[in-house]
Amino acid sequence: MNQSAGLSLPAAAHTGAASVAGQPVWTVDRGVPASGKRISPAGLSGAEEELLSLTIQIETPENVPLSVRLAGPAHRGGAWLLDYFIRWTGSLVLLFLLACMGQASGLGGTFGGLALVTLFLVQWAYYVISEGFYNGQSPGKRAFGLRVIQENGAPVTFWPALLRNLLRVSDVLPLAVIWLGELEAINALTLQLVPIYGIALVSMVCTRRMQRVGDVLARTMVIHEGHAEQPKVPPILSRISPLSSEVIGSWRPAPRTLALIDEFLSRRHVLSHKRGHALAAVLARDLALRLNYRGDLERVQRFPMGFLASVSVTFGSEKDEPVVRATEAGQ
Amino acid sequence: MNRRSWLKQRRPVWQQYENLLLRLEHGSRVRRESLESTQFAALFRELAHDLALVRSRGWGDSLEKYLNQQVARGHSRLYAAGPARAGRMLQFLGRDFPRLFRRQIGWMALAALLFYGSLGISWAVVQHSPELASRILPPEQLETYEQMYSRPLVADGEDAGFQESRAGMAGFYIRNNVGIALECFARGFLFGVLTVYTLLQNGIIIGATTGYLLALGHGERFLGFVVSHGSFELTAICIAGGAGLLLGDSLIHPAGRTRLESLRHRGLEAVQLAVGAAALLVVAALIEAFWSPAPISQVVKYSGAGVLWVVIALYLGLAGAGAGHAD
What we know:
Oligomer: heterodimer
Distance between the termini of chain B: 51 Å
Number of domains of chain B: 2
Strand content of chain A: 5-15%
Largest sheet of chain A: 4 strands, antiparallel
Order of helices and strands of chain A: HHHEEHHHHEHHEHEHHEHHHHH
Structural class of chain A: alpha+beta
Largest sheet of chain B: none
């Protein structure tokens, strides 16, 4: 791995650097690969990444595209299973209560009718009500952090929720039949039709937004609701002294690189010390080469995180382009 | 201005925005103060601007992710449609649904033709030669029907329990019929094939049953039973079927759009028709359970049925005809 300064990066830098924080750190010196196209962390061109990624851009009236992450069949299947379980336990409990009340009051017919209406509602209205009135989240979806939204990013409303859930009866096809044996007392339960969601799966593969037929018609999609925290300030920076101008050249790292270092350092605690240094080493060595660092190279190799921190302290407080505030720009 | 000092300056604003957003997401809409709304809109635009800035400068992935999520949450709050209201549903049933029915009268008529046509044919054929009934319906079913209508629907002295057991039947009718209608609609998107099948199948079975019972001489009792709730039920079947056909046709004749776009464009109207049909079927189930089997004279029953048929015709033909513009 002892390559001379100024030559192309070692192969390890390609793979290693890309995995540091999903950022192409080597844009520092080689932003444009031979093909001339801008490439992404995974080494794909923009169009390819668009095809493969699970994020969708939503255009906003503010002219700022928002990205949302689509939910795939596995998560949605899990949410469906949980909902299925809730629906069955819920209706069994309700049926049992109604049967008891029917017995106690002697009005068996009335409570029998109520039981059938309950089954009807559980079958047809469970999703419509939960998604239509609780902002696109059935209990199962809530547990799995999923939400139904409209294609334009707005929350789902009653009619789309209704349409996508009525069409569930088409999406579930074909049905598998499972015979649970002779249970004459609860005849309805002996023959279970288990939905396979075959049409839904095919439709999800064929559509850009991973929509089942109901979603396509109702113009809705199911997304992951991420939870993002405000990025923290790197804790150790206050005790780090900047590099003196005597040991470095005149080259300046890009703001993108400095931002990457800051974010890496602020999340340092999620890694073990050793692993942190190992990951930081890739960038630290390249930076030392690029900066023409004439200080203690031994220290850079042994404590690459420390070196990154001092780079961040050295350049992080320098002036960047002025920021025009939104309010000022609007006037 | 560099990233670090900018972050320091913006953090309080983001905190303020987050707090306000949390209040808006969980607070009551009615009690919202006007100041909050203005403030929220302004803060939201500031955050959108911050997001654009972070992206253009490449100021970090997790920062971008954070701002993206905050703006997305705010976006769904700011551009949300109003909450669903029960009043809307009444307005839909009282005005929009009949209007929609009249706008799509062609499909309703086609579904009615398929349904009543097959019903009429199988009725005529089976009444002419009742032995054919067993080729359509299973023999046990025929036997049950025969027993059901060979004696009065409600035996003398059974009055006390009558209302009570009928409530049970209402539940059954609602679950069964509404479920069938909704499926009839939803499977229409496969080019309407399954909808046509469901319409013909129901028409043939109902027709065969009628023909068989009439041939056996139970016609008086049977017709007295079905004529009342038939008004709402048969109409609703035709509407649900028409909605399914509408869905199927949007795939067959996309009319200048892509097939998918056409399906989406007309899908909303179709689902509204299906929901209207479901509402009619709930009414039908109540009539079928409480009025149709009531031990009253046939004259009263037939005149009641006549009123119901007129009501449904007036409702679908005139409701919402003059009141303002559709929105």
